[in-house]
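To fix ideas, we close by showing one paired sequence and structure record:
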Amino acid sequence: MTTQTLSRARAVPRGEPARRPARWTPEGLSLAALLAATALLYLWGLGASGWANSFYAAAVQAGSESWKAFFFGSSDAASSVTVDKTPLSLWPMALSVKLFGLSSWSILVPQALEGVGAVALLHATVRRTTGSAWAGLLAGAVLALTPVAVLMFRFNNPDAMLVLLLVGSVYATVRALVSTRSTSGHALRWLALGGALVGLAFLTKMLQAFLVLPALALVYVLFAAVPLRTRIGHLLVAFGSMVLAGGWWVAIVELWPAASRPYIGGSQANSILELTLGYNGFGRLTGDETGSVGGSTGSGRGWGETGILRMFDTEVGGQIAWLLPAALVLGGAALWFGRGSRNVRAGLTVWLGWLLVTGLTFSFMAGIFHAYYTVALAPAIAALVAIGAHTLWTQRHLLAAAGVLAFTTALTTTLAFVLLDRQADWLPWLRYVVAAVGVVTTLLLAGLGRLPHRVGQAVAAAAVVAALAGPTAYSLSTAATAHTGSIPSAGPSSSQGLGGGALPGGMPGVAPPAGASTGGLLEGSTSSAALTALLQTDASAFTWAAAAVGSNSASGYQLASEEPVMAIGGFNGSDPSPTLAQFQQYVANGQIHYFIAGGGGLGGGAGGPAGTTDDGTTSEISTWVTATFTAQTVDGVTVYDLSTGVQ
């Protein structure tokens, strides 16, 4: 046998799914079509959302102007305060703005591409688990068409990067599992990569990233084909990789002299560890969050009622719940029907672990919770639906398997009817079509084992269409709607979500409004042409062109003028930074040109939210400014020139 023949005859390592020759197969064309359609859905009309969440958009703009602001995730290029998250998700957007200039597209396109990448990775993971390209395609399609996923992959919150990295961590873990059954595999390398991706996910959204760790560790302990001692050793290496990938930035920030770095937004003691463990950590579980924008008494009342049905309530259900019961039923049933396949059982274990731990955490957390957080459930739901449906389909000759498929179809279409009925005036015919197709396909699926193969395929396809009709309609509505503000919502019920506001003035391609607004706790300010011109006047002579209470109030002015605007008190206006003495020193040094009154935040301020009684740092600063300097009004906004000296 020649060397060439030996090369062609190389065996596929044991445990690896067989691979087709590299050519355009129907499966390959279908994957290309799926990714192209996903890109179209996530990119079409993307610029309509303006700055989206101006809180993060301002930090992206700042990072594109200053490497120091880039590294820390500062709200302004002069680095007065950071955003209240670790900054990894901001970095691709900031680099995009640095390359292509400041615009809605340069900020949001990286987010959309992260969504396409997550779909591709999920397809590859499920494909490797099941050996079925069609199962991979179904998983990718379900993820792509989940309404909250469409929302987040067209928005500039950290969740897009979080989902991409966590899906990547499961892919790497699955590759490690397969490699343990191969003589040429590199299990330790793949597992270390999985750990590193979780660490990077921590640098994206802190402790939420760790919700997948129980599932990743459990699946490797149960299914790796190496001795137990070796499995534990591999997991320790992966843990070290995670700590290194996520801890280097935290260590630098902790060791960096506080006087020469920005204040850590969201903390009360200028500490990244406090932010990690408190406001963005255990406080989210208990509701004990100092400096929170609202919050609860521990029962979840401030953020909706907690409990096992939280994912199905009127706020959350339309975002994520469409296929949640199907994922649990199909995933659980497939553990039994797929017990002959180690790969399938491993895949089901990791995705069920992801779904249960994350879903229960979201259901019972008493602190800050927003419906868009549930995008973290979308990959697990999509994978379980695809793996479960594929496994039961291969056993469709069994009455029990066919019965589970029929029951799941009935359950899913019934839930879709309920969710669609909550928006009864929107596409009122759709829920009846879904229900009708659901009834017919349920009856036919019950006798699936007796149907001719092609007829069975047609029935299964109809069931998939019925199950996806509702979320697809919600997703298309989401993509067709502009979303701004801090708490966006998917579907037809809300174009912007809580905190939404007018699209920002001064954005390329968007005419500035005739007047201006100071923004609020959950919405960005808007500037006018006159106010923007005022902020840009002699801006190079000052460290900050202006200061305003709260990050959202500062963000709109900064994005319009592209000059640093200090966010007093951080996101909520409740951070004790700067102190009154520090602010007075900045003014005395000639570092701040203007103070813009109004805005919103828990810290209050001149012209702040009605009913504010806070006597903290931001209130002290506002009181001192109003008593010391002369006000002028520019397009309805009160501005104080701090460069004129004490009046």
User: Anything to note?
Assistant: The first strand starts at residue 544 and ends at 549. Confidence is low (pLDDT under 50) at residues 1-16, 295-301, 494-513, 604-614. The CA atoms of residues 40 and 322 lie 23 Å apart. The radius of gyration is 26 Å.
